[in-house]
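__Protein archive entry__

___
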Amino acid sequence: MSTWASRPIEEGALLNPAYLAFLLNGVARGYGDESAGTSLPFVLAFLAIPLVATASNRDALPRTVRTSFAVWLDRNPEIRERTPAQARAFWPLVREALLYGNSSGVIRVASDGSVESAESLNPKRTSPLWGLRQKSVLTGRLLARTGEVATALRLVGVSP
């Protein structure tokens, strides 16, 4: 992790640990809701954040979970192409968000490494965060419907 003083201003403002922990809370909530309470596997946090934190990926997300993750990626090949590089670039930021979120109580990292939504964060519909919350929950639901973790990773060309 680099020091805050050495980071680009945009990274510090837009990809700070609190914001990414907020997104992880939504992803974990959506995953848990869709998978009957199963916690988000640790490795999927590193896939989910580039999908929901990057505006171009987030804007391309399907409206509902009726479109499967595989079909969505098939319709958006550019996302499949750039996700491996984004996952590598986001790795230290996601790690930082997991540490911050766990220590602040926004998420809970279990002893097996899975991630749970520790508290309900529901911004008002008029808040700019409301749309981000919806997209992060949707991302968690899409990943939960994919089945095996290895399947989700293979679909985007990422290996654990």
The longest helix spans residues 77-104. The chain has one domain: 10-156. DSSP finds eight helices and two strands in the chain.
